[in-house]
Amino acid sequence: MIVSRRETWLGRTMLILLMAVTILPFISLFVTALHPSGTYPSGLEWPESPQWSNFVDAFKVADMGTLLWSSFLIEIAVVPVSLFIATLAGFALGHLRPPGARIILVAFVLGLTLPREGVIVPLYYQMRDLGLLNTRWAIILPLIGLYMPFAVYWMRAHFVNMPEDISEAARIDGASTWQMFWRVHVPLSMPALSSLAILLFLWTWNQFLLAVVLVSDPAQRTMAGALGAFQGQWGTDIPLLCAGSLLILAPTLIVFLVFQRQFVSALLQGSLKG
Amino acid sequence: MNQRLTGRASARREDTPALGSPESRRRAIKARRLRRGGLALLLVAPAALAYIVFVLRPMAQSIQFSFYEWNGVTESTWVGLDNYAAILREPEMSGSILNAFQLIIYFSFIPVLLGLFTANTIRGFATSRLAIVSRTVLFLPQIIPLVAAGIMWSWLYASNGMVNQVLEAIGLGGVARAWLGDFDTALPAVGLIGAWVALGLCMLLLLAGMTKIDPALYEAARIDGAGPWREFFAITLPSLRQEIAVCVTVTVIAALASFDIIYISTQGGPGNRTLVPGLEIYRLAFFNREIGQASALAVALMALVLLVVLPLQRLNREGDS
Amino acid sequence: MVASALVLAACSAPGSNNDAEEPEESAPATEDASALDCGTEPVTLKAYIETGFPLATELFDEFEAQYPNVTFDVREDQFAVLTQNAPRVLVDDPPDLMRLPQMSELASDGLLLDLDEYAAAFGWDTWPASQLEQMRVDDEGRRGNGPLYAMGLNFSMTGVFYNKELAAQIGMEEPPATLAEFDSYLQAAKDAGLVPMAQFNGGATGGLAFPLQGLMASYGDAGEINDWIYQQPDATIVTDTNVQATEHLQSWIEAGYFADDINSMDYAMMMSRFIEGNSVFIFNGDWESGNLDAQMPGNVGFFLMPPVEEGGSFGAMSAPLTYGISANAANPACAAFFLDWIATNDEARTIAVEIGGSHPMGPADAFMPAVAEGSVTAETLAAGAAIGAQDGAMDFIANATGSVYAEGWTPNLQKLVAGEIDPTALLEAVQAEYESSVG
Fold it and tell me: Region annotation Disordered: residue ranges (chain C) (predicted)?
């Protein structure tokens, strides 16, 4: 493709500008975190003596270890279970195609546009009646349900496009549907599954509304919920808040930078497929 | 932000390769369908159960609660459509819905338009080193919690924050203000946080769509003597119909159902100027304990999202066929 | 699927079958009278308090030191967050001790423990009755009478703090005796290029309610305002004197006496500006006296909002720093014992004054620690006595109903700052919000 030099120059400038706008808030967060706790630094200004100890203080007051553990427990319950049951359903709807598959699919698709606020009030009373308020289960169980529309839709789209003859071949070898599912389809679905796993991981980690409504103890929340609680308590101490926010962001940022290629492709595909 | 995406588009454009004669294949499938029917339903059951219990049942309950006056503790009273009438009557609630629609300008239009423009200018060097680095950078807002975005930006917008610092540096100190505390700027300021979050995703989605367009189309257009503008409107834009529909859908839902950013940055203030339905539902239900009223607003919000998003899917599907 | 979900949900109207879950009115009478303390077994008291004020935690530390079997498990939030969470937390995660926001609905809905039995057992009912009045709520949610649902850590009072250095700079030797005189000092500060008043009014905090209520008491009658706050029949906030007071506040806004970013200023930022010398006056309460004495020793003065005419009536918000016990609390007796200890233990009373800056609760003749001459703590305690003599004590107008602060005062005061509402309309909007919950 022929691109004029002027266009390239304009494009590069725009891209750099966009990147600057994207990254500056992070830098401001970092610089502010180094100011003495309790002060109101003005804008982006390198402190006279950087207070690295703010990070230590924030780590202590936010009880980061507990928070990480809590988020980990929620993830470990939500992601595998969601993946598993969504794969079963996706396989059934996309590959086995029982009578009524279309209606079932439409019922799931309906949930794709659902704003969480639409169900949060009944969920609260449901969790209260189950005695699960203020426990991690109050986040885990609804999240699995809320992920089903997307996850089932995603896995079905994957299985619909899997060539029929793979199953034929397996069937000739005398494999049952179940064996075929485990030995043939699941291994072939790894790319789709891992992308879905990344998406579910991120959404769970960043889930805020359920955490804020259903769980009052930050130590039982997701990371985003814990960050909300941290802001609720320390929001008036800007440097400490910035340090705490950075600490809470750090795990996601690290995981993202390591797996960035997978993240980007999962998110792009996720948007298109959804 | 993109967790509640909708649409029926499939990313794949190539067709599934078909082997074997179509006739025998169709018959085999039919026979198998009957045999597998029971097993298939069994496999769907766990997902369906989770969906029914934690989504459909609460949805139905929201509808049911919305006809009652209930404080969550004592007996409820049937009030018919009163709660819905109140949404129209009370400026607080109707205002929150209008605010949400205004947010669409920032959450949706800005990222899509700016994303289109940027993607179009950089598509020529989409594989360069700079473009690859930009993928990582522009994605950062997508992976952090919206809460964090709210915290960062509240600080940037503060009267002694970076936004004012930059304005003063470029000689615009006169317009500097406490952006989130000003009646005229609070909603746009909050909206721009949403734009910041969505821009990277939209830009990269559109760019990915652009790289799939057949270069022969552009060459043909050039031979016909088309300028960059006509090229953009005649080739690029129509080819991106699906991607644009997706971007708009995702961001419109994010705007209408916004909660996290507002909760953190303004709590709806100043003077309810940034109050959105999500926050109002939360306040009504858990602070005022007007469960019925909160539920009616929740139902209205779900209906509005569907009303806005469904027509978009038509655009999406047409683009597909 | 949708149909089955509907069937599941449609069994009964919400709330019709959960009588069993209603918070029980646990009666201390059923407990052994000798158990009105924390015993000797290890006890963990769950407390939910407001962040940013060291008084409660200092008291907890002292109590833990005196009663080693007791530990406090403390959760802290900013007041606005705490207010929003209160109804939920009291039912579903019941604390033994909680800093209460406005309490009439919390009490009348049965979320708070009725403390009358404890009051009788500990002899709180022999204290000056006015101390406990604001914490009594009848079964319709009216305050002033009825069972006792909370206790104060101390009772605090609000007025005007000023930076003595800056005041001298604008020629203010003595606190103003009239509102007109106060206005002239504000103008002098403005002329001198200083920020006359930084006042928090951002986000969910309508801090202009502080000066507004002071002005209301200067123009009108503190008793009428109390009637409104206590939800007396037909009480209204839209009175001629209140309109005059709001107009006066508006004139301050229009004259530019407030910092121009007050609609985004939170409480901590106001304190920081004042302490750094970036505001001549602030409207605040004596809970900051101890802090200000520590941070700007000798440089802070205090006065009550001056009357319209010299010698005229004036008033001040004076309210207990209320703590309640959840109706479902695990350790109500120990929590009540702690509340009694605060008012009667010498160490605790010393902490209430030195850290809290306010007058402790308790019998009129109880121990009082010595306060340094010239400290702002001494000034606020003296002002408290003056208010008592004037009968000018009012509860806070933001405490009239559970939601009148968040949904009445805050948004409308922010609108007043932005010039989006006029004084009469402001009061009418607040009255409408008030009536929607008093009904």
Answer: 13-36
Q: Give yes or no for C75 touching A (CB within 8 A).
A: yes
Q: Is C76 helix (H, G, I), strand (E, B) or coil?
A: strand
Residue B155's closest chain C neighbor by CA? C264
pLDDT per residue as tens digits for the range C281-304: 999 999 899 889 999 999 999 999
- The verdict on residue A164 lying in a domain is yes
Topology classification of domain C157-318+381-438: D-Maltodextrin-Binding Protein; domain 2 (3.40.190)
Of residues C104 and B318, more confidence is placed in C104
Kindly report the CATH number assigned to the domain that includes residue B174. 1.10.3720.10
Determine the residue of chain A that is closest to C267 in CA distance: A236
Domain ranges (residues) in chain C:
29-155+320-354, 157-318+381-438
Task: Determine, yes or no, domain membership for A214.
Answer: yes
In 3D space, the residue among C384, C406, C405 whose CA is nearest the CA of residue C393 turns out to be: C384
Q: What is the pLDDT of residues B129-175, one digit of tens each?
A: 888 888 889 889 989 999 999 999 999 998 888 999 999 999 988 89
Q: Name the amino acid, one letter, at C176.
A: P
d(Cα C338, Cα C47) in Å, to the nearest integer? 12
> Cβ contacts (< 8 Å) between A101 and chain C: which residues?
none
* 3-class secondary-structure state, position B180: helix
Domain membership of residue B157 (yes or no) is yes
- Domain span at residue A82 reads 63-224+252-273
Domain count, chain B: 1
The predicted structure's pLDDT at residue C129 = 80
Place of tokens 């298109």: A272
Alpha-carbon gap, residue B245 to C349, rounded angstroms = 66
Residue B270 preceded by cis peptide, ω within 30: yes
Specify whether the CB–CB gap between C248 and C423 falls below 8 A. no
For residue C63, give Cα distances in angstroms to A158, C98, C290, C343, C346: 63, 16, 20, 12, 12
Residue B316's closest chain A neighbor by CA? A272
Amino acid at site C212: L
ipTM of the complex: 0.91
Q: What is the pLDDT of residues C298-347, one digit of tens each?
A: 999 999 999 999 988 888 888 889 999 999 999 999 999 999 999 999 99
Please state which CATH class domain C29-155+320-354 belongs to. Answer: alpha beta
- B-facing residues of C in 63-122 (CB < 8 A) are 80, 83-85, 87-88, 91, 105, 109-111
Least reliable range by pLDDT among A192-201, B2-11, C312-321: B2-11
Length of chain A: 274
Residues of chain C contacting A122 with CB distance shorter than 8 Å: 9
Work out the pLDDT band at B316, boundaries 50, 70, 90: low
Q: Is C13 close to B178, i.e. CB distance below 8 A? A: no
The pair of three-digit structure tokens given for residue C299, joined into one six-digit string? 């440089």
DSSP letters, C189-256, are HHHTT--SB-----TT--TTHHHHHHHHHHHS-HHHHHHHHTT-TT--S--HHHHHHHHHHHHHHHTT
Residue B30 has a pLDDT of: 67
Select the residue of C4, C261, C412 nearest B271 (Cβ to Cβ). C412
Q: Which of A216, A227, A240 is the best substitution to test chain C (most C C-beta atoms within 10 A)?
A: A216
**Residue A258 belongs to a domain:** yes
State percent of chain A over pLDDT 90: 47
Q: Which backbone phi and psi does C348 adopt, to 5 degrees?
A: -65, -40
CATH code for the domain of A75: 1.10.3720.10
Q: What was the pLDDT predicted at B180?
A: 93
Query: Do A216 and C2 lie within an 8 Å CB cutoff?
Result: no
Residues of chain B contacting residue C91, judged by C-beta atoms under 8 Å apart: 73
Please tell me which residue of chain C has the smallest CA distance to A132.
C92
Write the pLDDT tens digit of every residue in C100-158: 888 888 898 889 999 999 999 999 988 888 788 889 998 888 888 899 999 998 888 89
Number of domains chain A is built from: 1
